Amino acid sequence: MKLTHKLCGAALLVVMGAAVAAPNNIKADDGVGVKGEGEIQFTSSSSSSTSFTNSSGSGTDVITSGGATSDANGFGISYVSDLKFGKHGIVTDGNQNGPYWATKWIGNAGNKDQVENSNFINFEDVRNIADHKYEITAEISQEFTQAVNGVDKKLAGATLTYNNMGLRSATADPGLFPDSSALKSGAVVEAGKKTPMLQNVNTNNDPVFEKGYGHYTLYFGKYEVASTDSESAEKSVMLTVPKKGNTVIYEGAYKAGITWTMSATFQP
Fold this sequence. Notes:
- The structure is a single chain.
- By secondary structure, the chain is mainly beta.
- The chain has one domain.
- It is about 5% helix and about 40% strand.
- It contains 2 helices and 17 strands.
- The strands form 4 sheets. Strands 1, 4, 9, 10, 14 and 17 form a 6-stranded mixed β-sheet that branches.
- About 40% of the residues are buried.
């Protein structure tokens, strides 16, 4: 079995923890977000290193690091993988810095049970209701920032673009998967604005709408293809930093927070 299938199933079942066993009538607060981390490092050198050793994924399937976990209690986001954009030389000319691509997700980094996959989030809707419409949004809730001599310096106007979206589930009925049109591949996420990433819509206003029921993994890019492929995990989450407002970039790590939210109420 390919790692991409094994790990998505493992991450889906294990990272969710108690949420999988929660009764259907237990519901998380609608719209409470889970914040993952983004990080990019700059050096005074022009070299760039984003390579990793491929892991077989053997050993334990318990993921103890590599993202933010929450108990969704039947409705919500239960896991958000952290985004790592590697190390890059500081750009001193051109109209923008980058774009920069997120590397593959790594769980249990540096341990014998290290595993890799596409970046992903886990979410669930096992509510005991008739209408399972919902929306998932993402927002840069904390801009890419590092402290320079006690002053917070940001990558002003930085955005994240998520491509090659797909859905997997280890447990959901295949007939209940949200339609492919629900996925907003190519969505651009920015600071201070909730951007729709998935919209499970009851288009016909059916009295009973069951699509979207279950536990799912929303992933970005294919782990099993070459990194140079346009559909690969390494070509699916893009960080763009405009030159305007970022003429000076400092050596060191800029870190951001990306908050994912699931809600039955759509953004206006």
